[in-house]
Amino acid sequence: MSADGKIAGIERKQIKISSDEDKNRVNELRKKYDAILVGVGTVLADNPHLTVKGLDYDTNPVRIVIDPHGRTPDDALVLDERAPTVIITSADCDKEWDCEETVRFEDELHLSEILETLAEEIGIESILVEGGGETIARFFKEGLVDRYTVFIGGLIIGGRTAPTPAGGDGWVADNGIKLILKDSMVLGNGVVLTFEPEKR
Ligand SMILES: NC(=O)c1ccc[n+]([C@@H]2O[C@H](COP(=O)([O-])OP(=O)(O)OC[C@H]3O[C@@H](n4cnc5c(N)ncnc54)[C@H](OP(=O)(O)O)[C@@H]3O)[C@@H](O)[C@H]2O)c1
After folding, report:
1. What is the pTM of this model?
2. CB 138 near ligand 1, within 6 Å
3. What is the CATH number of domain 20-197?
4. Mean pLDDT per segment of 10 residues, for the chain of length 200 residues?
């Protein structure tokens, strides 16, 4: 995020906050997880590949998109051949994608149920949630965050409606979720902070 706590501008388009050093850090971080997860808002705004440089289809983490209404376009880069992709959608959505797997859930999507299914059916046991703010807020709200890592770069973006790392409709919990700082590291013209949620 920027030094004023935004992850994009008011028009929700991607903006360069990361330095080259931070891109390398994210590359290394992605390698440690079975899967990388984003909400469909990030696919539509940023059209990311969500792959690790130098890895191929068999070695890249699985890409997961939560997309209850089937808004991921067929030509989204997250559907390319560089890694397997799993789309999580609802039973009401009948769209088909050219991807490794589409998992359809009845009723409302519950993250704990999604994570259980991903572990049991696909063997995914660790997930890096990269965004955006709506999705990250939902993980916090359901108490499913083990670690929160953020790079804060030397940039001011501004805009009261510009997205932040945890968006959503309001409080993620009464009085917020307390975090314990576990690590801080200067990285180029920014800093990386790692927190863990206080046990509730
Ligand atoms: N700086 C960064 O590192 C970074 C990283 C990622 C994204 N971004 C920025 O973040 C913005 C996009 O983020 P966003 O917050 O708008 O969207 P988002 O979190 O990427 O996606 C939100 C959408 O995903 C679906 N979704 C996610 N979790 C769900 C759940 N548990 N249950 C049901 N639906 C769920 C919903 O889709 P429906 O609306 O279809 O129901 C929801 O509206 C862009 O501006 C992008 O540039 C920045």
Report:
1. 0.97
2. yes
3. 3.40.430.10
4. 98 92 95 98 97 96 98 98 97 96 92 97 97 97 97 97 96 95 96 93
